[in-house]
Amino acid sequence: MKPLDIYLYIILAIGIFGGSAATLWVYLYLKKKYPDKKKAGDDRPSV
After folding, report:
1. pTM over 0.90
2. How far, in Å, are 2, 27, 30 from residue 17 at the CA level?
């Protein structure tokens, strides 16, 4: 396996996991910033 292939796999993994992690972070950040916007219908307990 060439080093370039390893780098491509690492970038791909970071892209997949980093993308979902970034979405989760943005969701949690907005939930913390605006906790009183959406209380009704939100079944997740606010942390």
Report:
1. no
2. 23, 15, 20
